[in-house]
Amino acid sequence: MNTRLCTGLCLLLFAVMLPCLVVAAEEPPTVYVIKKGDTLWGLSQRFLNDPKHWPNLWSKNQEHTNPHLIYPGQTVRFVDGRLQIVPAVEAGGQKAAAAPVEVLPAEVVEEKTFTVRGNEGRLAEGEPKPVGRIIAGQHSRLILGEDDIAFTDIGANVGAVDGQKFSIMRKSATISHPRSSEILGTKLYPLGTLQLTQISPEGSRAIITSSFKEVEPGDWLFPYQEIKRREISLKLAERPLKGMIVESYSGHDAVASGDVVYLDLGEQQGVEVGNMFYVVREVAIEKMLVDKVITQLPYEVIGALVVVETGKRTSTALVVKSIDAIFKNDLVMTAPR
Q1: 3 state DSSP class of 10
Q2: Can you tell me the distance from the alpha carbon of 32 to that of 36, in angstroms, rounded to the nearest whole number?
Q3: How would you classify the pairing of strands 82-85 and 132-137?
């Protein structure tokens, strides 16, 4: 009798404790409000213990790893090793209030920035107006570099003075839009700087004080602008934007991570320095394999780029990620769906 009683009590106790065990097995999600300086890179390290989880997740899942959605004041949820964006309606309603919130110590994750050298070039809109040219190199040299002597057509008759500095630029090509054939601008990129050392009425002798690429007679001179490295932070685009890669810094048709490209979007369309664009491509439909009409599939995301300089109708961007080869004429957009 005692054995039966003990067995019955054990079964009753197990039945009472079973719901508690099930609830305990389900780890509650961590709800977190984004602070200034937080990035998905840092959050992946902090909550998922794997900073490399972010780029892998990004390439496979556009919705939950879109950096445009991670901004101060936004609510995110970490559950089962994944990051979820909490919709604004839910974050301000009863659902978010009912979710268990872990009180976290104050900590600011290092902000994700991208370093640019300052010599990425641009599409000069309108007709560029140089103040002069390099017309010769010392000893008739055709290839010049740092500390070499050059001669210019800038003289005392245009107000030149000893010690005056100029930026050396090269005109590469006139770029037209691949669809409309509208001229977007002249491709210019900096080569270095020079300083005048001896002035004559119609020309001058100069020394090349810095160079990023080979300098040649015929290269243009513009008023001096300092070129230096700077950090670009991500910034949310004010509106949905869609455009196209129209040219690359190298002039090559195919580019990859670390390369520089030029877009047919600028300040007039609302583009700002720090805006991130996805490089997307339409998926070709194999009509032989489908038995119904499908006009378009979701875009295939093949890379990302960050705007580092803007003009009125064009902008310069750094390719920060490439999953596949990126080509001129590929589409770019903010927050693809």
Answers
A1: helix
A2: 13
A3: unpaired
pLDDT score, position 309? 95
Q: How many CA atoms lie within 13 A of 234 on its CB side?
A: 23
Max intra-chain CA distance, the chain: 122
Q: How many structural domains does the chain have?
A: 3
Residue 174 to residue 242: CA distance in whole angstroms:
23
Residue 107 and residue 136 in one domain: no
Query: Which token pair is 205?
Result: 């002798």
Position 229 in a domain: no
Q: What is the CATH number of the domain that holds 299?
A: 2.40.10
Residues 6+ apart with CB under 8 A from 128: 169, 171, 186, 188, 220
Are 78 and 139 contained in the same domain? Answer: no
Task: Say whether both 12 and 100 belong to one domain.
Answer: yes
Give which of 153, 188, 192 is closest to 172, Cα–Cα.
188
pLDDT classification of 269: cutoffs 50, 70, 90:
very high
Main-chain dihedrals φ then ψ at residue 87, nearest 5 degrees: -55, 150
121: which residues sit within 8 A by CB, 6+ positions away?
187, 188, 189, 190, 249, 260, 262, 316
Which residue type is seen at 177?
H
| Tokens 């300052």 found at | 118
* Residue 164 domain flag: yes
CATH for 136: 2.40.10.410
Domain that holds residue 62: 2-111
3-class state of residue 25 by DSSP? helix
Q: Which of 223, 245, 276 is the last residue of a domain?
A: 223
Say if CB 332 and CB 243 are below 8 A apart. Answer: yes
pLDDT at residue 267 in the model = 95
Assess whether pLDDT exceeds 60 at residue 223.
yes
On whether residue 117 sits in a domain, the answer given is no
Which residue type sits at 243?
G
**Mean pLDDT, residues 53-65:** 44
Average pLDDT over residues 12-37: 55
Whether the Cβ atoms of residue 127 and residue 53 lie closer than 8 Å to each other: no
